[in-house]
What does this fold into?
Amino acid sequence: MKLDSKIPQGPLSDKWTNYKDHLKLVAPNNRPKIDIIVVGTGLAGASAAASLGEMGYNVKAFCFQDSPRRAHSIAAQGGINAAKNYQNDGDSIYRLFYDTIKGGDYRAREANVHRLAEVSGNIIDQCVAQGVPFAREYGGMLDNRSFGGVQVQRTFYAAGQTGQQLLLGAYSALSRQIGLGRVKMFNRHEMLDLVKIDGKARGIIARNLVTGELERHSAHAVVIASGGYGNVYFLSTNAMGSNVTASWKIHKQGAAFSNPCYVQIHPTCIPVHGTNQSKLTLMSESLRNSGRIWVPKRKEDAEAIRAGKLKPTQIAEEDRDYYLERRYPAFGNLVPRDVASRAAKERCDEGFGIEANDTNEGVYLDFSSEVKSKGKEVAYAHGNHNPSEEEIIKLGKQWIEEKYGNLFEMYEKITDENPYETPMKIYPAVHYTMGGVWVDYNLQSTIPGCFVAGEANFSDHGANRLGASALMQGLADGYFVLPYTVSNYLADEIRTGKIATDSPEFEQAENNVKETINKFLNNNGSKSVDHFHKRLGHVMWNKVGMARNEKGLKEAIEEIGQIRDEFYKDVYVPGSADELNPELEKALRVADFLELGQLMAMDALQRKESCGGHFRDEYQDAEGETLRDDENFSFVSAWEYKGQDTTQAVLHKEELKYEFIKIAARNYK
It folds into this structure.
């Protein structure tokens, strides 16, 4: 396997423009002769399918949900970044580029990140034209707010449902192409294998999840946009159906899998409340704009809160430890996610946690200061220059409700606590995965004709993603990168003609899928799929989670291997193959998670440094901050599949060369 990143030559700010100018094109009259498959219909997949359909290609789009509108992109709450500088606070394309590189702890590819920053402004214009209802200021201009890891306001938002509104915009564009017949939509279908012919991606085997029928679909190029792999931990903020299967299948067919150990732990999630819980709920990072994070200064106060003897509102201001403001005064509550998460873990590990569960994991996100501050502002704007305390609090709560009302309502429905009156309880949880399928500058994997977009690829976020950058990357890939790079690849496919699905390669791929399905259905084990998934998640969270060390990682590799062996011997999958069978779906997905989990631990073990979301206990400074090793680990790890025994995977390295920025210690103090 050879890694050729295909990064263009020339000045950083000119690379993408010059590169586009010299890409090969497919003439409009030739595009209807070419078929493209898009797997996944979140922001990356829906925008890619809509754009390629608009260009005139024949597109087949696949999603396992009953509608593209249910893709997990709808769960993104806080916003989408773009370097518009509407707030006149010093933002620029370079600033967004630099913040993203720094936020990723200098482990991202320079050229890809700059391209992302360049096209970010176009995304906002595109979405406004589609009717996305971004928040606006009094004068009608689009509003912005701050997110972690930056000192400007560049995040565009639509209340606390930005992902949903952006996806509806992409879905409307996709629906138009479906109506015109350029995109054929396959809902309730799951890709179970990639088909290669003469080394090129030429189609997929998909299972109709309603009837159980296996289908063959051919194409001249395949785009994987199936999201991340956070559900390897069982408990995460991801939708329960989110999985790694599409990415893992192409990995097993020859696509390198990169940086699997880079997992983002989001600092503002509702804490785990029981052993039977199956999903965690994210509270938007936007809340850190207005909320202050704290724990009691005294352990006895924390113990009293956990015992139900003391309420947070009874803790005096001077007895609260606003630990992010104390440790990181320059950024305060808006430090990057990995920094905020580790700081919360440190406080809880020291005994200051406030949530009364087995692990005492929880801190407060408190809005009382913002309520008073904004209440005074609103009163003053209304001409009341001497408002009472009661008036201030009333007006402040109204301001908070306008800004974050749906998030507060969601929190109250889940916890039965009113966040206007008492601080939210939060704790870090698995959220996003920066690792993924290795791609070059064209977003093409190491399999010719197989492209990967959005969270499914590794390319833009390094070791930690800044908040509000996931939506930016998904739409950048789909609307503004793939239409150029896929066309460049397809320019040589005009004379290929229709690709038949009765070839030996399709036959073999379908038989392999059938064999796997039959093995599970005939296994006659005694334990459910969830039994094994939970055990895997327990190992992953405790040994490949927020903090890692050599001993734990070696144990994890061994233990996951044992769980995997037991899984194949003793898993019970009821029902049959020719029907709607959710347990069969889960079994196929968990089988892939078990292989991936081992690779994540292996990747974390070989990376003997701390960077971003990858934190090794052995590599930290005196203040508990990450210690990078730029001399030995400034590379992208790219793993080559070498058979069912994941421990035999081969590591390849793409060296990261920074020509236009100076690598420095990441400092938010």
The longest helix spans residues 389-415. The chain is about 35% helix and 15% strand. The longest strand covers residues 424-433.
